[in-house]
Amino acid sequence: MVSKNPAEVVVSALKKAVEKVTEAAEPAIPGAPGSEPPSVAEPTEPREPLPPKPDQDAPETVTPTGAPTGAPKTANSQQGAFLTTAQGVRLYDTDHSLKAGERGPTLLQDHHLREKIMHFDHERIPERVVHARGAGAHGVFVGYGTAENICKAGFLKEGVSTPVFVRFSTVVGSRGSADTVRDTRGFATKFYTDEGTFDLVGNNIPVFFIQDGIKFPDIIHAVKPHPDREIPQAQSAHDTFWDFVSQHTEATHHMMWHVSDRGVPRSYRTMEGFGVHTFRLVNEAGETSLVKFHWKPKLGVHSLLWEEAQMISGFDPDFHRRDLYDAIESGAFPQWEFGVQVFPDTPDQTFEGIDLLDSTKIVPEELAPVQPIGMLTLNRNPTNFFAESEQVAFHTGHLVPGIDVTDDPLLHARLFSYLDTQLTRLGGPNFGQIPINRPHAPVNDMLRDGFHQHAVHGGVAPYKPNSLDGGCPFFAGSKDLAYVEVPQRVAEATKVRKAPESFADHFTQPRQFFHSLSPLEQEHVIRAITFELGKCYEQAIKERQLLVLAKVDTRLAAEVATGLGLPAPEAEALPEVVPSPALSQLGQEWPIDGRMVGIVVDADAPDGLDGVAAVREALFAAGVVPLVIAAHGGELGQGLVAQRTFATARSVEFDALLLAATPPPAPDALPARDEKATGGSPVDPRVDLLVEETYRHAKAIGAWGTAAVGSGPGIVTGDNPTEVAEQVLTLMRQHRVWNRLTAGQEPPQA
């Protein structure tokens, strides 16, 4: 079993990574597009390219075969002060084609025009079939050493620091879809270990829709937009999805997670990650264990309300990626603790009656606690989205010594699928030589040529055995850290196309999941399924899915039926289940690093800025980012600058709201100019709407001085601005004012 106390492990490498961040005199509001403020006039004096922003990082400068070059990371970026062709020839103009006279035809000899247009025509590569919409960041993983007795992988040893790149994503939508749609999220981590690259390609949901990879095209075809109209985009609320899951009932468990609050996470930073499959670990003595991998966010698990998710899709479709990038730029580095559930490696590969090879099943944490084995910290944003986040290529077969696969039929199909995907998407077999994909270990693979070959291979004998190259490369033994598959016995069996009997129970764990949720979370599940089925056209699909829900929970089926205006299915005798408290997101307090707090001010009132400067300092000290909201942007007085205006601010951007004033309508509070500016309130109607939505979405609200917001759960008022702010920060640690959602009170008016 895992041993040692992680608190005793000194993670000096992590501290060094944190120290690299440039410290400003005052914390900066994230979002600056460049590393220097631009000038009003176009710069004309030649200079070298600007350095990356302090929050950005680039891949290590290693050769295509993994040797460090010693060059700075910026060596992979643009070089020199002057515009050139792709071959380095300096250009004097790129605004005009070469023509036969000013009004004449363009000349065929314009090689710069041809090169520029040709490259533009091919800037886009085929997007991923799934997980097309994603965002990534660089970081570091530090092992606790607590896994050394179950796994010999070097990156898990105590204090070992390993560079990583993590890509988060939605599954269903295209690259142009919104971040906050209801969907499963990808959580893929590339570990650049000294023993080779290890990819843990996981999700934010611990189970999958299918048990066998041969069904993967079916579930994806079902959930994707209808092929005739290519709608709806990035949604599961349509006929083909529910047609599939209502008939293929092994999808029921994933469906329940999908329609729960887990389907609309608040942030990538507040999202759990799971390896989904069961893996086999081997230690230095050759002993094996079975494990499931978990990522536990240090900020806790937190989700959006459904109305928030819908609003954000229009207000800010980039909400999740912006949150990730801004948090890293602010120094609020996202962290996840890496953990494992450990099981004996028995011949039947089961634990407490649960088939560990069935990817539609979990092992409740009460039966097998998640034991921490390391810490992941994301501390650098990409320098170039395409080069890194878009070209990064993951593969479940990228394993290192100490980690092996099991006989999970879904995992085995993924071992085939990922290489084919990269060949099509990245244009050939050498995708591993793209900087973001290059191993940080020496490579001598005898693979040659092909599209996009960057290495200049030496030698004349890329085959084994050889003597012309002195026998190189040589085979590694176990003492040389060779990857050796665990010698598992394969039983004699008849070739069949069928699943084991242990895969047949499709409803007990979905029932356990539903009964493990709080009453409020159960209501969200009921609402989500009612909404999703309500968007379907075919009545038969709705009725069929109600029959499936009746096998999960009688009340769930009845409530959804009521919402659809259909008769409830006949109640069935359902088994008793033991709830798993670990499956609920409510009931704890969490850090609030990197959260956003809006501060409404009135720069024109005598007391409209009182206390704001002190409150901003208190919020910065708590690791929170304050955004000042005023009638207009720019400088307001007392050294304050407005980051948002009444016209641009919406409640969904903030985790809490503070009011230093309740300002009167601003000059632009005209319905013809801003549809939100309606109503005859003495307060600017956009501020009224901001308060009303913030209250409805169960977020903390604070006010001081002459600002008035009424009363209710989670509303803090007082004369001391910093004391009000401190109480609001305390409320934020529970993510929301949960009792407000069940109190049934009318929202206050500003």
Automatic annotation (TrEMBL):
<feature type="binding site">
    <location>
        <position position="167"/>
    </location>
    <ligand>
        <name>heme</name>
    </ligand>
</feature>
<feature type="cross-link" description="3'-histidyl-3-tyrosine (His-Tyr)">
    <location>
        <begin position="395"/>
        <end position="418"/>
    </location>
</feature>
<feature type="binding site">
    <location>
        <position position="414"/>
    </location>
    <ligand>
        <name>heme</name>
    </ligand>
</feature>
<keyword id="KW-0408">Iron</keyword>
<dbReference type="Pfam" id="PF18011">
    <property type="entry name" value="Catalase_C"/>
</dbReference>
<dbReference type="Pfam" id="PF00199">
    <property type="entry name" value="Catalase"/>
</dbReference>
<dbReference type="InterPro" id="IPR024708">
    <property type="entry name" value="Catalase_AS"/>
</dbReference>
<dbReference type="GO" id="GO:0020037">
    <property type="term" value="F:heme binding"/>
</dbReference>
<dbReference type="GO" id="GO:0005829">
    <property type="term" value="C:cytosol"/>
</dbReference>
<dbReference type="InterPro" id="IPR041399">
    <property type="entry name" value="Catalase_large_C"/>
</dbReference>
<dbReference type="InterPro" id="IPR043156">
    <property type="entry name" value="Catalase_clade2_helical"/>
</dbReference>
<dbReference type="InterPro" id="IPR002226">
    <property type="entry name" value="Catalase_haem_BS"/>
</dbReference>
<dbReference type="InterPro" id="IPR011614">
    <property type="entry name" value="Catalase_core"/>
</dbReference>
<dbReference type="GO" id="GO:0046872">
    <property type="term" value="F:metal ion binding"/>
</dbReference>
<keyword id="KW-0376">Hydrogen peroxide</keyword>
<keyword id="KW-0349">Heme</keyword>
<comment type="similarity">
    <text>Belongs to the catalase family. HPII subfamily.</text>
</comment>
<feature type="domain" description="Catalase core">
    <location>
        <begin position="84"/>
        <end position="472"/>
    </location>
</feature>
<feature type="compositionally biased region" description="Low complexity">
    <location>
        <begin position="59"/>
        <end position="75"/>
    </location>
</feature>
<dbReference type="GO" id="GO:0006979">
    <property type="term" value="P:response to oxidative stress"/>
</dbReference>
<feature type="binding site" description="axial binding residue">
    <location>
        <position position="418"/>
    </location>
    <ligand>
        <name>heme</name>
    </ligand>
</feature>
<comment type="function">
    <text>Decomposes hydrogen peroxide into water and oxygen; serves to protect cells from the toxic effects of hydrogen peroxide.</text>
</comment>
<feature type="active site">
    <location>
        <position position="203"/>
    </location>
</feature>
<dbReference type="GO" id="GO:0004096">
    <property type="term" value="F:catalase activity"/>
</dbReference>
<feature type="compositionally biased region" description="Low complexity">
    <location>
        <begin position="24"/>
        <end position="43"/>
    </location>
</feature>
<dbReference type="GO" id="GO:0042744">
    <property type="term" value="P:hydrogen peroxide catabolic process"/>
</dbReference>
<keyword id="KW-0479">Metal-binding</keyword>
<feature type="binding site">
    <location>
        <position position="425"/>
    </location>
    <ligand>
        <name>heme</name>
    </ligand>
</feature>
<feature type="region of interest" description="Disordered">
    <location>
        <begin position="665"/>
        <end position="685"/>
    </location>
</feature>
<feature type="binding site">
    <location>
        <position position="128"/>
    </location>
    <ligand>
        <name>heme</name>
    </ligand>
</feature>
<keyword id="KW-0575">Peroxidase</keyword>
<dbReference type="InterPro" id="IPR010582">
    <property type="entry name" value="Catalase_immune_responsive"/>
</dbReference>
<feature type="active site">
    <location>
        <position position="131"/>
    </location>
</feature>
<dbReference type="InterPro" id="IPR029062">
    <property type="entry name" value="Class_I_gatase-like"/>
</dbReference>
<dbReference type="InterPro" id="IPR024712">
    <property type="entry name" value="Catalase_clade2"/>
</dbReference>
<protein>
    <recommendedName>
        <fullName>Catalase</fullName>
        <ecNumber>1.11.1.6</ecNumber>
    </recommendedName>
</protein>
<dbReference type="InterPro" id="IPR018028">
    <property type="entry name" value="Catalase"/>
</dbReference>
<feature type="compositionally biased region" description="Basic and acidic residues">
    <location>
        <begin position="44"/>
        <end position="56"/>
    </location>
</feature>
<dbReference type="InterPro" id="IPR020835">
    <property type="entry name" value="Catalase_sf"/>
</dbReference>
<feature type="binding site">
    <location>
        <position position="216"/>
    </location>
    <ligand>
        <name>heme</name>
    </ligand>
</feature>
<feature type="region of interest" description="Disordered">
    <location>
        <begin position="18"/>
        <end position="80"/>
    </location>
</feature>
<dbReference type="Pfam" id="PF06628">
    <property type="entry name" value="Catalase-rel"/>
</dbReference>
